[in-house]
Specification:
By secondary structure, the chain is α+β, with helices and mostly antiparallel strands. It is 39% helix and 12% strand. α1 runs antiparallel to α4 and α1 packs antiparallel against α8. 40% of the residues are buried.
């Protein structure tokens, strides 16, 4: 809805989502459905861009003993536009690095305004995740992107899990050291929310997955979906 976002803002959102994943993964749980619609941005106590990772409905335990307490399934599960190759070709042996691939696809979308792969049908999108190489982010991005962030996102989109960052903790370490081309400060976030917060006007609801906040209203509380 608001177009590709500054790389500094993307870094701040990714850091928060990685924090959520780090907690889940440390408990042996995979989210399995990381996508823009499951990342909600809100203004909390005057702090703009407070990110929450939602909808753990497809969560799966990496430990098979824990999995007996959750929904058991080895079928292909997730959202095709953000699905890791191994979730398609070897769903039984997927680990937490599949969540990192999906987060890389979300980051690619936030910076380019387009999914990593597009096609006329779901089967073709799935095939491309398994077989095709994504267009380099340096070419796809619609905003300036720090080289270190570009490199991290393309590593996340590697076909082989072994070539991706090993954990959300590693991602946090890398992201914390990136110097964005377009810094995004708390003051920038506050200005953005002051301009777009529906408290000052009618709320609007996104009709499709978008990478950037679209305001929605829930039980009298204002939030915003990513």
């Amino acid at each position: 809805r608001f177009g590709p976002q500054p790389d500094g803002r993307v870094i701040q959102i990714l850091l928060q989502v990685c924090g959520s994943l780090l907690e889940a993964h440390s408990r042996g749980l995979m989210h399995r459905d990381i996508k823009p619609a499951n990342i909600m941005l809100t203004r909390r106590a005057g702090v703009g861009d407070f990110a929450k990772l939602l909808d753990f409905g497809l969560v799966k335990a990496q430990d098979t003993r824990q999995q007996t307490m959750l929904t058991a399934t080895d079928m292909i599960t997730g959202t095709p536009l953000y699905m890791a190759p191994e979730s398609i070709s070897d769903a039984e042996h997927v680990d937490s690095r599949a969540d990192l691939y999906a987060l890389g696809a979300v980051a690619y979308f936030m910076l380019s305004g387009r999914p990593v792969f597009e096609a006329n049908n779901v089967i073709e999108i799935i095939r491309r995740h398994v077989e095709s190489q994504p267009k380099p982010l340096a070419e796809a991005a619609k905003v300036p992107v720090a080289a270190a962030l570009d490199q991290l996102i393309m590593r996340l989109l590697e076909k082989s899990p072994d070539k991706r960052p090993a954990s959300a903790a590693e991602m946090i370490d890398v992201l914390a050291r990136v110097s964005p081309m377009q810094p995004w400060t708390p003051a920038d976030a506050e200005r953005w929310w002051t301009q777009h917060d529906p408290a000052g006007g009618p709320a609007t609801t996104a009709t499709q997955d978008v990478a950037l906040p679209a305001t929605v209203q829930h039980s009298g509380k204002t939030t915003a979906t990513s």
